[in-house]
Amino acid sequence: MQKRSATRAPSRSSAPPSFPLGGGAPVVRVGVEEEFLVVDPVSRQLSSRADKVVAEAATELGGRVTTELTRYQVEIRTLPHTDLTGLRKDLRLSRQAVARAAARLGLRIISSGTPVLGQHTPPPLSAGKRYAESLATFRALDHEQTVCACHVHVEIPDLATALAVSNHLRPWLPALIAQCANSPYWDGQDTGYDSWRTLTWSRWPVAGPPPYFESASHYEALVGRLITSRTLQDRGGVYWDIRPSHHLPTLEIRVADAAPTIDDTLLLAAVVKGLTAAALSAVRAGQPAPRPEAELLRAAYWRAARDGSRGQSIDLSTGRLQSAARHLGRLRDTALSALAPDDLAAARTARYRLAGQGNGADRQRAAYLPRHSHPDVIDHLIHQTTA
User: Which of the two ends of the chain, N or C, has the fewest CB atoms closer than 10 A to its terminal CB?
Assistant: First the structure.
């Protein structure tokens, strides 16, 4: 339930498309938002003391740590970075600061797209006028939103360029779901999906894959109608999985589950950064973006959320099933080939560390299997989050 941005920069321009470098590779700055659940290390149940964890962590992180929709959740925001090495350090220090703050209160944090064990329904909501208005507007939708995501912001100076990049990134969203799936459990049950958060989040009226936008005016007109019809509270309620910030010059890619480890987050950021650089080059060259049918893209979302990285995916150009592993291979080859050498080295290091482990859902199930124990999954997530 994201309201804020990782990147602190001047407000967005509505000027025609522009590019960071005239003839060379585009320079892309990235920032990350990570959401965590707060748990009791003894009962392994969710703790509603997230506001206390935020207050404690703010002594180190200031305004870069904040509350979320429910009182079970904490969010951190990195600074914007031009290189992945700096981003890794920022992520490590931020996670450690929140983990220390939680530990001082006798609590722990976990990075999972959904709670493993049960939660109170309705959950305790954070204080604030906006959250109260959300509950009044969306009602029981808010009751099942104890879900956590990992959002990557890429800095793009104007709305027209951001939307052109969004069009190029749209077809890759199912592959990003499969790579980052980390929410197989809900209320103590295996859902049979690798990313149950994707299914839960899709219930919002303005969520899931974004439309293909013809222009900045097309985007503005559509968002305006959604606000006029009271489908949205305001521009901050646009929850498409790619969205331009309404107040900062960034494009936010918000399709991924909360990442279990720093390496998972770094690999996601590397892929998004590379895809964005490739998209900027394509836009500059006047190459049209692929335009898969909306219904097929939605079907590909469902398949990716169910099968993850080890099942099958839908080829959006043919509608046929294909190996998810092969699809992810194309995703990473496309993205990483657009990275600068230092970033490529950092991405390869993260990928090497994760090799053979599967996505986060695979790892959660592997932790459950030896003793068929959900508390073991929580312990695994505590270790993965703060290791």
Answer: C
Note the pLDDT tens digit of each residue in 53-82.
Answer: 999 999 999 999 999 888 999 999 999 999
User: Sign of the C-alpha dihedral, residues 263, 116, 43, 47?
Assistant: positive
In degrees and rounded to multiples of 5, residue 333 shows phi and psi of -65, -45
CA angle 278, 281, 285 (to 5 degrees): 140
Instruction: Give the Cα-Cα-Cα angle 346, 348, 350 (nearest 5 degrees).
Output: 70
CA distance between the termini of the chain: 26
CB 36 within 8 A of CB 29: no
Encode pLDDT of 243-265 as tens digits.
998 878 999 999 999 999 999 99
CA 63/CA 334 separation, integer angstroms: 35
Are 78 and 90 in contact, with CB atoms under 8 Å apart? yes
Residue type, 52: K
Non-local CB neighbours of 192 within 8 Å, separated by 6+ positions: 184, 306
Say which residue the tokens 């999954």 belong to: 377
Contacts of 76 (CB under 8 A, 6+ apart): 33, 34, 36, 57, 61, 64, 65, 94, 95, 98
